[in-house]
Design goal:
The structure holds two protein chains of two kinds. Chain A is α/β, with parallel strands linked by helices. Chain A folds into two domains: about 1-220, Rossmann fold (3-Layer(aba) Sandwich), CATH 3.40.50.300; about 225-295, Alpha-Beta Plaits (2-Layer Sandwich). Chain A has ten helices and 14 strands. Chain A has helices at about 40-50, 90-100, 105-120, 135-145, 165-180, 190-200, 215-220, 245, 270-280, 295-305; strands spanning about 1-10, 15-25, 30-35, 55-60, 65, 75-80, 155, 185-190, 200-205, 210-215, 225-235, 250-260, 260-265, 285-295. The longest helix of chain A is centred in the middle third of the chain and has 16 residues, at about 165-180. Chain B is mainly α. Chain B has two domains: about 1-45 and about 235-425, no CATH class; about 50-200, abc type-2 transporter like fold (3-Layer(aba) Sandwich). Chain B has 16 helices and four strands. Chain B has helices at about 1-15, 20-40, 65-75, 85-95, 105-115, 135-160, 160-170, 180-200, 235-260, 265-270, 275-305, 315-340, 340-360, 370-375, 380-390, 400-425, and strands at about 50-60, 80, 100-105, 125-130. The longest helix of chain B has about 30 residues, at about 275-305. Chain B is elongated. The model of chain B has no long low-confidence stretch (mean pLDDT about 85). The chains are: A alpha/beta, B mainly alpha. The interface of A and B includes residues 42 and 142 of A.
């Protein structure tokens, strides 16, 4: 459905996208992950035909977009990061306008508008001006506006930025519905939990380059540790603790001590009881304990050396 | 292609007509300002004349000076009040009077002698004037000259003081340095005046009271669209204000496009399979329609309330309005093309617009400008628009008078539009 080959785009001296390649098959949901400034939006803008790349190409169903009026653009629905709506007119009027931009007219457009409003749960507010909507409702309408012409490929550029958890869940439900309908979704975000919940495959970008492209399982295989045990020591009892002493215990893969926090990488959490016993016996009692499975956040940290939210 | 074009145009019109602020700024504000300007520039022809405040300081108090003050007081263009010298000076300084005329002591006697005796010293009439109103001073000076001539000669031919002055002059005639034949002629003239004076003194009621008078009368005629049709100052004022506020619509178009670029809506528009012509053309069309609506509404108001009529070619009037509306639309596109952000562009575009409005004669007619500036303003499109509107409204001229403004404004619209399309930044910053 979507094939991106070695895209490069710079703005003056700044290289925003540096050789990005990715693919998305029909019905597949791809997460495009990276911190702010990684080149996600620029990549999406090039795919949508808003920007011309310095080099590389984008193929939609095997062919390049040719100019502003290429009918192939009808296969693409763009959900921009900023709210792309006119706040001074009603939700229904907004959708009618955006439907008309794709040449839709008459009952066909009216039907598409009703269906999109139903999907995002805004049918009852259809006549209200968008300026009176909450941030979450605007985000849902922003999604609806991209669906009117029934595109096969949806480009979602951080569609949940700044919304409350309830609205985020509602948007996720909408996206899962679209996924079930066989749409191809390219979803940019820097929220790991969103990508983990929704995406079949992740493309991780940093400083304009793809640093990983794999399924969730595949990305986890890149990690040296699968689980993380975090132990918060009592402040007065950390003196004399040498991390390398823990390193030799069964199941321990990595040890890091920062202040009173001990982060221990392990292949299997079942080995954690031996570690806790060792700490107690050696005079390092603890006050708080937590364990977690390695996440995409950890994957990103491992791949780039910095946090996704940097 | 037509469906998106219509939808975008309709959306812009809906946004304009749905906004009370837009309507207030585009209709009510120009009506209020045009009403003010129209009133102070002559109204609909029946406005009371604003009289020049003049103070008369009569230090002579004789028959001639009293006659001069009386004549000035009777003039419909002047509001003459008596005053002392110092009070008059203070009043002029404070702007409460425009001119103060100071008639010095013995003015009448000296003026009478100087009338027939070229070697006699001429008395001086003082004029204190407000330097910010030099044209009013010139006007009063002209009136005063005529009134002094008439008052002095009337006294010489008819008054007792005048009779004495003629007698004195006759007595001094032999001492004048003048050729004998001229001296003889002057003596005969003065004796004739003496005789005339004696006759009118003897039978003052029956005699024709003579003297020298200004040998002509002024007949002024305002050349408007037809005989009996009065000049309507509101026609120019509504045209001027219409042009100013329509240019503000142009600024809104430009800034609106720049704002759209900052918002997601521009990405959404660009992601649709639309040509650049549709995107910019629909915006230009809605702006031109809005501008035309504003002009029509303003002139409809002026027609109903102030009796402004299209005295000339209706086709020419509509043509000028349409051409200027198109020019405004492309002016808006040009602002969007050359501007980077709305914040940075707003101030400069307002300044440019106000300059165009000012130099185009929308506030005050260009004929009050210095000659060099009048020549310079022919490069300003608003000047052609004003000329076209003046020609087809109160001047009552035919289509031929509007043809050149229409052609020039249309040319300007095409040039601005072409430049805007070439310079428009289609790609954003990613």
């Amino acid at each position: 459905m979507l094939e991106v080959r070695a895209l490069r785009k710079s703005f003056g001296d700044i290289v925003a996208v540096d050789g990005v390649s990715l693919n998305a098959g029909k019905g597949e949901t791809i997460g495009l992950l990276g911190p702010n400034g990684a080149g996600k939006t620029t990549t999406v803008s090039i795919i949508a035909g808003l920007l011309r790349p310095d080099s590389g190409e984008v193929l939609i169903d095997g062919r390049r977009l040719r100019g502003d009026t290429d009918p192939a653009k009808r296969n693409i629905g763009l959900v921009p990061q900023d709210i792309g709506l006119y706040p001074e007119i009603s939700a229904r009027e907004n959708l009618h306008l955006f439907g008309a931009l794709y040449g839709m007219d008459g009952p066909r457009r009216a039907h598409a508008v009703d269906a999109a409003l139903d999907l995002v749960g805004l049918a009852e507010r259809a006549k209200d001006k968008v300026s009176g909507f909450s941030g979450g409702m605007m985000r849902r309408l922003n999604l609806a506006a991209a669906l009117l012409h029934n595109p096969q490929l949806l480009l979602l550029d951080e569609p949940t930025v700044g919304v409350d958890p309830q609205s985020r869940n509602a948007i996720f439900d909408n996206l899962e519905t679209l996924k079930k309908r066989g749409k191809t979704l390219l979803y940019t975000t820097h929220y790991m939990e969103e990508a983990e919940r929704l995406c079949d495959r992740m493309v991780i970008v940093d400083r304009g380059k793809v640093v990983a492209d794999d399924t969730m399982q595949g990305l986890h295989r890149l990690l040296p540790v699968a689980n993380l045990l975090t132990v918060e020591l009592e402040d007065s009892h950390r003196d004399g603790l040498r991390p390398e002493e823990l390193q030799i215990l069964p199941g321990v893969q990595s040890v890091e001590l920062r202040g009173v926090t001990l982060r221990i990488g392990m292949r299997d959490l079942a080995d954690s009881s031996g570690i806790l016993q060792w700490l107690t016996e050696h005079g390092h009692p603890f006050q708080h304990l937590a364990s977690e499975r390695a996440s995409l956040e950890t994957v990103f940290l491992n791949l780039t050396g910095r946090s996704l939210r940097d | 292609m037509f469906t998106p074009f219509l939808a975008l145009t309709r959306k812009d019109l809906k946004l304009f007509f749905g906004s009370r602020r837009s309507l207030l700024m585009s209709i009510a504000a120009p009506i209020a300002i045009a009403t003010f300007f129209g009133y102070i520039f002559g109204g609909s022809g029946s406005t009371e004349i604003s009289r020049i405040p003049v103070l008369a300081v009569d230090q002579d108090g004789g028959a001639i000076s009293r006659e001069i003050v009386s004549r000035l007081t009777a003039d419909k263009y002047l509001d003459v009040k008596p005053s002392g010298l110092e009070a008059a000076r203070q009043a002029v300084r404070k702007g409460k009077a425009t001119v103060a005329i100071v008639i010095p002591k013995d003015f009448g006697a000296e003026a009478g002698k100087a009338l027939f005796n070229p070697t006699a010293p001429k008395p001086q009439v003082g004029m204190l004037y407000d330097p910010s109103q030099g044209s009013a001073m010139s006007m009063v000076q002209g009136m005063l000259t005529g009134d002094v001539m008439e008052a002095v000669s009337k006294e010489m031919f008819n008054g007792q003081t005048g009779a004495g002055m003629v007698k004195d002059t006759l007595g001094q005639l032999d001492q004048l340095a003048m050729p004998a034949d001229q001296k003889k002629s002057l003596r005969e003239l003065l004796q004739g005046v003496q005789g005339f004076n004696a006759a009118t003194q003897a039978a003052p009621r029956q005699a024709l009271r003579g003297g020298m008078t200004v040998p002509f009368q002024m007949r002024s005629e305002a050349v408007t669209s037809g005989i009996g049709v009065q000049y309507n100052g509101y026609a120019h004022a509504f045209g001027g204000m219409g042009i100013q506020f329509i240019l503000f619509v142009g600024i809104d178009v430009g800034l609106g496009l720049l704002l759209q670029r900052q918002r997601g809506v521009w990405k959404r528009l660009r992601a649709a399979p639309l040509s650049r012509g549709v995107l910019l053309g629909s915006r230009a069309t809605s702006a031109a329609l809005t501008s035309m609506f504003i002009l029509m509404t303003l002139f409809a108001f002026a027609r109903l309330v102030f009796g402004v009529r299209i005295q000339g070619s209706m086709a020419g009037f509509l043509g000028v309005c349409a051409a200027f509306s198109l020019m405004t639309a492309s002016w808006g596109l040009l602002i969007a093309a050359l501007g980077k952000t709305p914040e940075a562009t707003r101030g400069l575009s307002i300044l440019t617009t106000l300059l165009m409005v000012m130099l185009g004669g929308s506030w005050v007619p260009t004929f009050v400008f210095p000659a060099w500036l009048q020549k310079l303003t022919v490069v300003v499109p608003t000047r052609w628009a004003m000329d076209g509107l003046d020609a087809t409204t109160w001047r009552g001229l035919g289509f031929s008078a509007a043809a050149l403004p229409i052609a020039l404004l249309t040319g300007c619209a095409l040039a601005f539009g072409a430049l805007a399309v070439v310079r428009f930044r289609w790609e954003d910053d990613g």
